[in-house]
Amino acid sequence: MILRDLSIEDWSMDKYEKVIALARRRGFIWPAFELYGGAAGFYDYGPLGAPLKRKIEDLWREFFVIKEGFCEIECPTIGVEEIYVASGHLSGFSDPLTECKECGEIYRADHLIKHIIEVPDALSGEEIYTVIKENDIFCPECSGDLSQIYEFNLMFKTTIGPGSKQAGYLRPETAQGMFINFPRLLRYYRDRLPFGAVQIGKSYRNEISPRQGVIRLREFSQAEAEIFINPKDKSHPRFDEVEDLKLILYSEEDQEKEGGQPREMTIKEAVDKGIIAHQILAYYVARTYQFLMEAGLSRDRLRFRQHKKDEMAHYAADCWDAEASLERFGWIELVGVADRTDYDLRSHMAQSRTNLTVFVPFDKPRREEKLVVKPDMKKLGPIFRNKAKAVAEALKSLDAEELEKETISVVVDGETVEIGSDLVSFEMVEETIRGEEIVPHVIEPSFGIDRILYTVLEHSCYEEMVDEETRTVLKLRPKVVPIQVAVLPLMDKDELMAPAKEITDALKARGIYVEYDSSGSIGRRYRRNDEVGTPYSITVDYETLEDKTVTIRDRDSMAQVRAGVDQLPDTIPALLREELEFGEAGVPLRS
RNA sequence: GCGGCUGUGGUCCAGGGGUUAGGACAUGAGCUUCCCAAGCUUAUAGCCCGGGUUCGAUUCCCGGCAGCCGCACCA
Predict the structure, then answer these.
(1) Tens of pLDDT along A130-161?
(2) Cβ of residue A104 near strand B, that is under 7 Å?
């Protein structure tokens, strides 16, 4: 049976272990700082991992920068304190912790008093501590005394400048860079909505206990797009391009419902039925799906799950996560596509006291009758002194009917004030309103590159039995594969190596990433290349010397064709672009 | 962060208070007209870090770090 075919290691290792072992051995992912014992939550990308990551990012650029036309910017990874006051990361990103003085166990202090205070978030650390003391709450484990509350913030903190008191924080997301550059971006796009800006870069979160390897990192790469839209228009002009796309959606309703299951449906259906809030959000869910497919995820291990109300960030109106199924971890979030509404811009408006609005002209200017109230400040001033301004403001809020009275009464500071009609004049003025100032809403597709990279590895990793040996293959998509072609002289003899090197150079001249390898048997080299996903191998043999043909071998099928050396610079790129079927690349050889 | 288990060449594993720590696989060099991890010769390479006990520690003890599992945490 199958049992016989698998070695003991195969049974004891789960897929995560196998993929990580492969990734480590072949130079994709390494634990960082290994020389000095390592640090949890940090990984290096090795010689194959770095190009794989770069290619995934480039594919993302192709989708969001080139096709969507969003500009790419690059902001500092260290941010000043105000940003994170506004974004809420300084307060909301930290947890109040308390420690048992007896057994040392650490608890979320707000969780311990949940049954007493309904909204513990609103309390300060000291207030929580008071509640704990007053209600005789002790360590749930050993009933020991609990310590004072201290805050654990997930942001890395530093100081800016020598001896400086100015705090700096390593950014916990790249998104804020786009928000705080909103005025300049708006100008760059010549004051018109919608527009988008993206950033690909590192973010940092000082996780309490990062496990799960590359799934939860303290330093990680994000690719985020912030799309600024007019909240009054949530349609998308290119919606028709994606509306028939079928994908697996797991709506909030289906999650809550007994026996509710993810359902396959078209994007159009999802919007029509109100499952996805609006076209724009649905459009980017669809593009996200297309991107992940291109990157090489397997379709049946991908779904889009809607955030439940209680897990949704307080600012978000709707949020869909692209989730991938991993053998060890189950469904994990790779991408979040959120409608962040105007939360971020409003927060930064308040914090920075600037105006982050856009003037949106109406289709047709409107004529509006408007009541203009003119308090006579020359007279009001001497009468009301320092209250004069408040009185004037109160008068301006009245309607025509009130103002027509002989004696007008307004309430100022809780006091009713009577004002003679001679102290204020008013008139109806007709004015033209050409548009309005609005705070844009933000749609945010946010991608976790490291998780996507790992998922690409896991989803493309196959083991199959060939002649009673296990063949490990990474079926990476040609778009993201680090090594595109291997050139292999059948043996490392000078007469074979010379033409092989010529082929290598010819392909390099075409911008192809070629690996030349002459060591070990040809079969061994094929397997080595299978393991790192090299899609095609070119073998130079003695026949090559006679008729200038070589063997091209296909990674997935192991099939071979015989092709002329001169054609390689054309056929190989065509194969890699998936414009040419492997069988057409030469004369098929029987295996 | 707490508790349990673990830490030996690149990888997987053996061993052990005392001279040169052993194997397999992988890797390098060489041989072999070699198309799917063949064979032969040969080489390189290791006891996680710090402290303690001891004449002597890779081995025993303590601490740190890392990994795995459970708990907590996961904006």
Answers:
(1) 777 777 777 766 667 777 777 777 888 888 88
(2) yes
